[in-house]
Amino acid sequence: MIFSSLNINSKEKIHIQIENHVKEEIEKGIFKKGSKLPSTREVSKVLGISRNSVILAYENLESEGVIKSLRGKGTFVAIEKKLHKGDLIIDWEERISDYGKVCEELDIVKTELPWKKGMISFKSIAPDESLFDLEEFKRAFFNVFSLEGDKLLNYGYAKGYKPLIDYIKGYMEKKGVNLQGKDLLITNGFTEGFDILLRAVTEKGDTIACEEPTHNTAIKIIKAQGLNIKSIPMDSDGIDTNLLEEALMDNPPKLVYLIPSYHNPTGIVMNGEKRQEVYRICEKYKIPIIEDGFNEELMYSGSHVAPLVSLCGKGNGIVYIGSFSKILFPGLRIGWVFGDEKLIDKLESIKRAKNIHSSALDQAVFHKYMESGAFKRYIKKIRKHYKAKYNFTLLQVKKYIPHECILGQGGLHVFIKLKAVNGREVLNECYKRGVVFMPGDIFFNNNNNGHQWIRIGFSRVKEEDIEKGIKIIGEVVKELM
Amino acid sequence: MIFSSLNINSKEKIHIQIENHVKEEIEKGIFKKGSKLPSTREVSKVLGISRNSVILAYENLESEGVIKSLRGKGTFVAIEKKLHKGDLIIDWEERISDYGKVCEELDIVKTELPWKKGMISFKSIAPDESLFDLEEFKRAFFNVFSLEGDKLLNYGYAKGYKPLIDYIKGYMEKKGVNLQGKDLLITNGFTEGFDILLRAVTEKGDTIACEEPTHNTAIKIIKAQGLNIKSIPMDSDGIDTNLLEEALMDNPPKLVYLIPSYHNPTGIVMNGEKRQEVYRICEKYKIPIIEDGFNEELMYSGSHVAPLVSLCGKGNGIVYIGSFSKILFPGLRIGWVFGDEKLIDKLESIKRAKNIHSSALDQAVFHKYMESGAFKRYIKKIRKHYKAKYNFTLLQVKKYIPHECILGQGGLHVFIKLKAVNGREVLNECYKRGVVFMPGDIFFNNNNNGHQWIRIGFSRVKEEDIEKGIKIIGEVVKELM
């Protein structure tokens, strides 16, 4: 019998040995297509093994199409040639698109020095999760789940969970925004909103005007989509409006992308007058603005500054991308795009083509949480908390790090221009001493402009570590100066 | 005083009337830059209104940059020109990219006849949410949230939640897949996995070979990305392998996209022998395969058929896109891409550039649910349930609808070639009589090929409505024949 040449060993699972034996015999040409296999009972007897192993092997072989059992007739070899000539091997790296390449090159998680256990890390500007109100979140989950859990776990709407959309519209209205002719799409955070929006209204080769420096994820997305960046330098109070006007006049970009509040990475809050001026310029040259609402809620002091989009009145030329998740529950990835209703209608189709919709359950729980008043309490708490931490960090920086200037009015980070040294060199040396932070050049379109800058994120670092870490950075700067 | 010309009416909010008045006076040139405004106390007295309204108006005007208050000095007009020349108006429709246009044109939610209240709808192939085990899901949430709720609400990893990745790897291994050199990325459902994968390894103008007909979302994504489709016709047992070989020989496509199990829309399950043959052909011409694991779990009868990717051994030429969410919790949007580890590494960077990561909380709850054994129980339950419903539907179709053929071996839908009539004409007439379904042509790259076909999804329709609806379709077909 064809199984008599098989010696069962004790190392491998028995059914796998049987499967391999059958395949080998077919490849050797000993089992031909159509030839009948012995019954599972016979095989188990001949080999002195449990019949279940043989049954399992036959089932697996049949599911792979190697053998076929015909009711009442027996089991037969189903293929005549070798299983296949070889494994299908593809050189995927050689096949990666230009888009994929840029995404990887500019992926700071992969390219920047990684945090290692025991290190003090100033890399992150994520919120401190110990400040989250978990009890309130849990309550929101139970409330919403008992009400409509079944519906939330089935398909939802591409535009988003209706009560959340309405809530955010109300929230925008309170900021002085005119809702007429506007609509809103829920996205998986700012990143998706920005990616979808650019995809919707640009073609390869178009130009986007940005502040220099700017949010490094925005730089990545713009470049990955094959778009060009026109960088507009910033003063200590924000974008240089004369240079903005020149840029718009000379060679009009497709869009202007701006972060007016707690600008990343500088932390600058553009004042009301400058906002008016920026709006006036863009209106004059009819260039739409993408406003990044980044950390707008994190105002530590002074009066509320209205977002650019509130200046637009009934106009539709400003698209606002918001995200609570920079300060609250980033893990849920909830953001939104607010703008002209016809534009949002197109974005909805793109969202549907990208991932159908954002998690309906997350949106509903998040909405319940916001509605409960917990958000207001949370904002109050974290403003106080982060403001104290910001002031503490600023004090340490001023005390220990030789600098040309320190930018920003708050947020969860401090942006520092070092005195006469290269930020990356400082980083490399600090890394050896257990301290890591963000080199400033990743925020510049022209990396050379950023070589003296570093960004210190303090939100998740303990005060004692902030002092310790900044002291070390200061020592290294002094040594390298 | 400058406010004496203001007559407060009772229709509008008082603070808005004050704000508008100040803006109008500035535009008229009556308030000049630097001129001092009366104090809020004075204004409230003169106008006979509450001081709080005036304070609110001043605050809003200041946040917009229109006025400025200097501590101890008073409040002054901050701008000298008109607020702006006009509203920034953009013609967004004219600016929509080619990508955006295709996404909208092929968005069936927008282009197909909408369900209206009271109608019997066979459009959906979403699962019936009344079969979901909500208690088990709630338990999973509770377990995972008390353990690591704070972490799950903060940023997670682009590749996905580690325990879920490991769980799915084990799940793939049980299907006979070799894990060596392979890795896995969690995505927001099949749709995102397919979109990201194509974006990673194709450039505009490349060709993807597909079964004809095929999943309409796949057609949409391929076309939106500017790629071409090479359609390979199907027999009643799946793709025509002779035509597949011809297509690969003549003008090799970049990738072959296939749905071997419960193919959408035909419902055909490719048998083991054909799977071997398809693999042999692709191996011969070195063309990678994207395998859509669509509804693989929904096997009603017969033995388990191994996925194509299990035939690949240590080879890396097949990328498998899986999604539990076709049958379980679609609202959570959880799917995955499984394939060569270097490729997955690139996809991870793209995922990060698109939306950072999928909801960490959803992944963790989902994992807990799967791990509890609830998934196995659920699958057992729904197989029985949907099998009965499928058989019932099939019976009604055979009884009432004049057809040339009926395809499929299960799933949540039946694909029917009508006798000598156009599916869209039938649909239009049925719609008037309160029945709606999917016209078959949306699943064909060449729409003309599909004009006789219709798809009947039954998962969320009650048995009595199934019979009633199918009877009506049958009547219309007979009338039009």
TrEMBL record, chains A, B:
Which residue range or ranges hold the HTH gntR-type domain? 12-80
One Pfam short name:
Aminotran_1_2
Write down the InterPro entries for this protein, in alphabetical order.
Aminotransferase_I/II_large, HTH_trans_reg/aminotransferase, Tscrpt_reg_HTH_GntR
State the coiled-coil residue ranges. none
Keywords, ordered alphabetically: Aminotransferase, DNA-binding, Transcription, Transcription regulation, Transferase
The GO terms this record gives for MF are: transaminase activity
**Name by which UniProt lists this protein:** PLP-dependent aminotransferase family protein
Species: Clostridium simiarum
Lineage here is: Bacteria, Bacillati, Bacillota, Clostridia, Eubacteriales
